[in-house]
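Work Package 4 report. The design task specified in the project plan requires that, given a folded chain encoded as structure tokens, an amino acid be chosen for each position. We show below one input record used in the internal validation round.
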């Protein structure tokens, strides 16, 4: 009786056994799970725990494979520059050339030196402007031997980085085609603000730039100042309480 059961059991197992997608999903290490508290959120995103974003991206991919579909979780391209729009009523070409230029101390779109265009910033200064608290970051932009001072609004809600129509004209940048320039010394593909958008006179420093160069902003709303830190050489430290 025992031998017969053993033979049937062996025959029921495929020669080249592979675990199913559902079994692989269940075998994946889970992110931290806890009660609804701030401590749970802190643990959830701690570097010592399983990354929940990576976990669910992989889970989605495995489930798609099980259904006979394929999703490339690394495919982040294909963003149409015309798919994004934002209404910015408090910053335009006039305010950039006047009020904001006065605070920065450099005329908007003024020529920049070759040294400034090639300098790779580790930390850059800027300002918080107006009642809507726009984050303005002045940077030297270079392209094909030309360099000008461009004032960007830091907008991590924008998937791409855009130059205004006025700035684009100086560099000969046309719509519907990405153009590689240097921004604060960093090479990056930018787009001309679409003529059909509500921000044709505004330069946007988007999430693509912030992600590629690991940009960390620091704000001081009381003084109206801000800084952008580039790269991974920086650490956030808390001031000791007196």
């Amino acid at each position: 009786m025992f031998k017969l059961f053993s033979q049937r059991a062996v025959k029921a197992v495929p020669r080249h056994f592979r675990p199913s997608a559902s079994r692989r999903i269940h075998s994946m290490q889970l992110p931290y799970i806890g009660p609804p508290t701030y401590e749970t959120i802190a643990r959830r995103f701690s570097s010592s725990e399983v990354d929940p974003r990576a976990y669910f991206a992989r889970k989605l991919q495995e489930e798609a494979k099980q259904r006979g579909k394929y999703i490339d979780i690394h495919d982040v391209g294909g963003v149409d520059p015309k798919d994004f729009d934002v209404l910015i009523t408090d910053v335009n070409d006039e305010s950039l050339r006047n009020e904001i230029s006065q605070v920065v101390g450099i005329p908007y779109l003024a020529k920049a030196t070759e040294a400034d265009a090639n300098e790779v910033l580790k930390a850059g200064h800027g300002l918080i402007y107006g009642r809507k608290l726009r984050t303005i970051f002045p940077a030297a932009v270079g392209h094909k031997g030309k360099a000008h001072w461009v004032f960007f609004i830091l907008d991590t809600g924008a998937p791409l980085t855009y130059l205004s129509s006025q700035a684009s004209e100086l560099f000969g940048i046309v719509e519907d085609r990405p153009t590689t320039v240097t921004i604060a010394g960093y090479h990056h593909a930018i787009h001309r603000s679409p003529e059909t958008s509500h921000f044709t006179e505004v330069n946007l420093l988007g999430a693509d730039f912030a992600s590629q160069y690991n940009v960390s902003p620091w704000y001081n709303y009381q003084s109206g100042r801000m800084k952008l830190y580039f790269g991974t050489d920086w650490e956030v430290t808390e001031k000791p309480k007196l």
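Strands lie at 123-129, 134-143, 146-154, 162-163, 179-183, 186-192, 203-205, 216-220, 225-229. Validation will be extended to a larger panel in the next phase.
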